[in-house]
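Issue: copy button drops trailing tokens. Both records pasted manually instead:
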Amino acid sequence: MNKLERETIILNAVCHLIDDMLNRAMVVEEWSPDWSNIMFRTDVHARLFNILLGDFLSTPNPKKGGLLPFGLPPPATNASGSQRTYLHFLKAVCDEPQLGAASPQLTDAVHAFASWLDGDTFIEKVWFPSMDLELDMTIQRIKALKMTGDIGKHNFTRLEGVVKSLQSTLESNGHAKSMEECYLALPEFQDWFYRHAFTYQSSQIAEFLSSIVWEVHLYLKPEYDRSAVFWFDEKM
């Protein structure tokens, strides 16, 4: 595929992912002239949003040989955090746009979300009763969001990777725990970082995603205006 076709695929995939997360079936908005906030319609919608967000914060599964489908540009071998998400592909669009003129606003929206994701969430006095452990816990936002999304999506028998992530996070916070202890602590981690941190951050996440999809539409508007043909029946 050529560069224009790959850009079309990237933008189509990103817009569909965001549209699946942000729509009137999923959320309602509370607002006043001074503030706004989104609320999930049910706990099921909140869980689905987190699962879909986890997909957005990943990359497509590679084919045999490690190549990504559609010839998409792979992240660097040592890439981590936001560099291994669909934001990586959006950055490629920003760096070398094909369907329109360069959009500083889209670049800013992508970088703002990436910077936020690569930052840390800090929660005081996290309590893990199964380990009789209380700690002030710091974890990278993207890591926590992907972990809570995976826990919401999979049965515990498919969560070894999340358990290892919890183990390494506890170790980086000064507490070495076994895999067995971390398996038992998964529901407790979910309670703190899904029911509290994710729910609290969801409006901000929605704002980042809304800014990105809005700037994508503005980026594509000149091409839409150029190619769209409207037909009106003068007799009507």
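Record 2 (pasted manually too):
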Amino acid sequence: MTRQTLQRGRERFEIYCAPCHSPLGDGDGLVARRGFPHPPSYHDERLRRAPDRHFYDVMSEGYGVMASYADRVAPSDRWAIVAYIRALQLSQHAPVAALPPGAREHLEQATAEGRP
């Protein structure tokens, strides 16, 4: 995993995935808000436990109302998107103990003061 891979995954995610899945990956994208069925949130426990291959296969073959993106997204970019999805998941579910001390103190202070 490299920073370049995550940056590429983010770029491709924002183009191909965020319109339905939203920039946060919570399934509340602009397309869904305009009446298209909401996709599942990447933050659901089921998808947090899903193997990486699941996301790759869904992009490759489609799933439910989602069409295949195999003709639009290269295999290496699909894997980069998978890496970015994992980063999104971690961003919402990282254990506080895994944060660096400065970030942990900032979070604890903000929580004590009632700030987000």
